[in-house]
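Troubleshooting log. The previous structure file for this entry was overwritten by mistake, so regenerating from the original sequence record. Sequence copied from the archived sheet and checked twice against the printout by T.R.
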Amino acid sequence: MSESMEEKEANVGGVLVSHEHVAVQEGTGATASSSGAKAKVVHNAELYAAIQETKIDYKSGNSIHLYFSIFVSFCCACANGYDGSLLTGVVAMDHFQNTFHSGKTGTLVAIMFSLYTVGAMVGSPFAAILSDRWGRKVGMFSGAVVIIVGMIIVSTAFTIAQFVVGRFVLGFGISIMTVAAPAYAVEIAPPHWRGRATGFYNCGWFGGSIPAAAVVYGCNKIDNDYSWRIPLIVQALACVVVLFGVWFIPESPRFLMANGREEEAVAFLAKYHGNGNPQSRLVQLEVEEMKDGIRQDGIDKRPLDYRPFLLTHSGRWRIAQVLMISIFGQFSGNGLGYFNTTIFEIIGVTSVEQQLAYNLLNSVLSAVGALTAVAFTDIMPRRKVLVFGTFACAAALATNSGLSAALDAQGDNIKDSYARGALASYFLFNIIFSFTYTPLQGVIPTEALETTTRAKGLAFSSVIVYAMGFINQFAGPIALGNIQYRYIYVFVGWDIVETVMWYLFGVESQGRTLEQLEWVYNQPNPVKASLKVDKVIVADGKVVEKVVASNA
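Regenerated output below.
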């Protein structure tokens, strides 16, 4: 009798887990000749079979509750995105300048911007401890409380000192939320919804940045200090949703399993992944793999222990994925977005009103690109998207910089066709970048990290992301001022390097459970292992056979 057919049973959290129930019968493909049978290539036969036999009702009350849970995590990203579009407009307001006399550029403004980043970097290690010890929900709740405190400090400020302290507190709170929220989104989603759930979370950046631009624009017409205080107050709106929403959402089943609360974890999986049936094939598979793959004495119980990322083969490959997406996701040319109005001026758009209109249009188009990608994240191979998408980013930037060079040579006699081409190529770059990176910036690190290292890895990612943002914010204006459009050439070359890096070192994570990825990362060459596929025979909507090579 083959191992896949052996009767192996284990009691997990009061649920009988049968390996015979989870495994797929192996064979040489003889069933393919049956009437109505067809062959299909999948990343993992057992997961595909479980998904085929467990059709989650996406319109059920439990599924709607799951959507709300993901929406709460989405609001955490909205709070971060809101700040990304907030301060540039606020600093330009007359009443803000009358209060603080900071100027619109220079050291004081740099401190106002950078203290948020510094707060986020300082808060990240504490965020990991909080999320690992007390849970993802507590992490999101605590981050919301800290951000609301920071909002009160900045919105009531009359001195630079109070304002920058508030900015630091805001950054500290954001780091707590953005470590807990993506971990929560990826851990509660069914395996075949995981990409959309986590990608949607990361699109919360636009859910915050676009409203922020609109609020700042509208409040600019108020002729008193509330013109800048109201936009700062509104920053807490998403946090209020989180503050109350976490009381109505379940805890992550993987956090529960890692902390000895198996019965609660199984109950979650049955309710949200198994249509209420703990014996469903998908629930059985997930329970078995969580028990095999999640250690209750893992490094999440040792707050300052980051050694597995360096000392183990699997850990080094996992943290490499986190490093690449964290650096490349911030330094592929998208950092130019901090200075869109300067970019527009370089390519011939000199009217302030036009610059602001194009800035808003650029945000909307980028959001469309990101949301389109979210819709297909669970069926598109991550690695191919990153390889081809990053190369396309380089091509779009090369086109933009080439046309910008031509515009520079034309002097005052600018040809409209060149200006429109440069503008279109810049918009195209942002659409491609958002399609390629925005969903995957949430997906790749959460999938690459296993449950007991996820919060620590995301905290490390947060530090890298904010460090790259710090570089963008300080190097960008200097470079654009000194070499203008030629600065874009740096990103053309760097995007080519990124393309090669993704091809050589990018591990494919689509189509597997989080626990199945443990096998991938433990292989000598995880990239090659991640591309391994299974061939299955499907008949009457069920997987009847996993095709293996004959030993004869």
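The chain is about 70% helix and 5% strand. Archived copy saved in two places this time.
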